[in-house]
Amino acid sequence: MLKLLRFVLGHPLCRGYRVSALQRVLKWQVGSRFMRVPMVVPFTSQTSLLMERGMTGATGNYYCGLHEFEDMAFVLNLLRPHDQFVDIGANIGSYTVLASGGSGASSIAVEPLPSTFQRLRANIRCNELDDLVTLHNAGIADTEASLRFTSTLDTVNHVATENDSGLETVEVPVFPLDKLFFDESPVCIKIDVEGFERKVINGGAKVLQSDSLRAVLMELNGSGDRYGYSDDEIHRDMLDFEFRAFAYDPFTRVLRELSNRNETSGNTLYL
Fold it and tell me: Taking the complete model, does pTM exceed 0.85, yes or no?
């Protein structure tokens, strides 16, 4: 709880509104204990999210407006109605709802876990975005296969390793990025695959070199260690594709090039 309060009180969108933010925390922490069905809560001015108890990322959006402020604001500011957004590791669809419901872009959302995929589908239907969003219940890797994923870890479910032998898992089909998106023209791709980023990159050379692609928002938080990959190796892969790392200030809408990956955030923005 202390970690949650520090996050909320330090969030850029809560400055000057800390009392109301704390009221939302209290309302959810108490109210969610009595909920029997998912609750619709406001997201952006045009959208909402279906939330249940235990959805840590989604509740961050309710408490603060945009859970991952800089990254979500970048997506919201970048995309236009004629653009295409790809959400790899979509979870319940916060970024997809933001891109299509907030910016009007078309989206393709990929989520491997069947139970989470159902929540993703429900959020798309709740916001009446079926015409703008294509959903895939699958994973992304460097080859076409079936892999086992953990299934009880909420936002940090991942491709299972031998260290996950005591956890519940589910088998999921996976496809290379280039095969699943061979005829698409994304402007922005979000990759949040809990350490499997290098496998996604290795199977996506054509997509990553497409003329339409302007930005890749990638989670780099050390999770690749479980598969034998370091964040620095993944960063070098992106440099080889002629991307460069940037930080974004949503208040000034200024981009600042970084000399390395973003080490102050769990995500790195590549342009």
Answer: yes
